[in-house]
Amino acid sequence: RVIEITLTSPMPDFLRLLAQPEMGIFLDGSGAGPMVRSDESDGQPLLLTPLPPEARGFPAREQWQSRARQVAVSAMPANSAVDAFAAGEVDLVLNGRLSNLPLADTGPLTRGTIRLDAALGVFGLVVRSDDGFLAEPLNRQALSLAVDRSNLLQPFNVGGWQSTSWIVPRELANGAAAQGERWPNLSFEQRRDIARQRVAAWERAEGEELVLRIGLPDGPGSDTLFTQLAGNFTQVGITAVRAGLREGAELELHDRLARFYSPRWFLNQFHCRLELGLCSEEADDLVEQSIVESDAQLKAQFLATAHNQLIDSEIFIPLGAPVRWSLVRGNITGFEENRWGLHPLFPLSQPPT
User: Fold this and answer.
1) pLDDT digits over 68-111, tens only?
2) 220-234 and 137-146 helices cross at what angle (nearest 10)?
3) DSSP letters along 161-192, please?
4) What CA–CA distances, in Å, run from 158 to 115, 298, 323, 336, 338?
């Protein structure tokens, strides 16, 4: 009944971390949440039934069943989920990503049913190879210089999307990352010229055309994103080829929501132990030092230096914030957009008054 956790250093967002869905506790095959699930059967939705208040640690309440309803949950491909919503078969679609966002903007759906989370996390291209052109950090930087972030998602019509050239968001960062973009003294055309010169120099030295593969998930949104990225790279002399995830591409999309509000989460996404792509052991060491450091100012300094180290290593091409969308019918209560992209199912079991 009691789990004791001892922290080696202060962590303000620790309770938020424990509240993540993947941190749920199971005992003898049962969870500790506010709902109980039905026995699963092939092809049928999973039924979740709210527990009575006394089973959730609250005083008993008469006729509580009148203020509760079952929630049926199904997992299905994005196109099937959107079709089911349009046909009135489901009232809520969750966990949409940029790769399938165009599906939600077609058919009889109205703009009011599409709800976007102003999500916090990482969205960009990890560098998975240090061969050829990508062997030098300055060449990898050329790819980041070539991307027109301000217009990258224009075809998606995502209002309020925040682009970035940093790994840690500005509101969490220290030093230069907190001040603005990485190249404040260069116009986009100047950045593109620098990238073009580096590509041309490499091609002259190697005697071959520069071709890079970009790994993206399946979906019409990925098709559009690839068209945008390929157009940017073409402008500096790079031929981009589309590939799927984990198919050996030199660049691969990394799209993940933040789990707690700290620079450490963002920096740890590129830890060498994850083998996501290229990494920086120096940055990892600095993050480790920040964990055991008790002085808040020194801790922030360690994290800022680690961020600068990752940026200088050019192992990741940040693009902006992750995109998460949902389809919500008008009679649904208990749904709220949030920066974590998490939507608990228990509030959905409370019908409207």
Assistant:
1) 889 999 999 999 999 999 888 999 999 999 999 999 874 455 54
2) 110
3) --B-SSSS-TTT--GGGGTS-S-TTS-HHHHH
4) 11, 38, 9, 18, 16
Tallying the residues shown for the chain, one arrives at: 353
57-69: buried (b, 16+ CB within 10 Å) or exposed (e) per residue?
eeeeeeeeeeebe
Q: Distances in Å between the alpha carbon of 265 and those of 98, 222, 291, 298, 306? A: 22, 26, 12, 18, 12
CA proximity to 164, closest of 10, 336, 325, 317? 317
Q: Among the residues of the chain, which ranges form H helices? A: 14-18, 78-86, 137-146, 149-152, 188-206, 220-234, 263-268, 281-292, 296-313
Which positions ≥6 away from 346 have C-beta within 8 Å? 33, 34, 35, 50, 334
State the helix-helix crossing angle for 188-206 and 137-146, rounded to 10 degrees: 140
Query: Poorest-confidence range of 170-179, 246-255, 256-265, 341-350?
Result: 170-179
Domains and CATH numbers, the chain: 33-118+323-349 (3.40.190.10), 121-320 (3.10.105.10)
Nearest to 22, CA basis, from 213, 252, 221, 259? 259
What pLDDT, on the 0 to 100 scale, is given for residue 206?
A: 96
Say how far apart CA 254 and CA 127 lie, in whole Å. Answer: 10
Tens of pLDDT, residue by residue over 262-303, are: 999 999 999 999 999 999 999 999 999 998 888 889 999 999
pTM of the model: 0.91
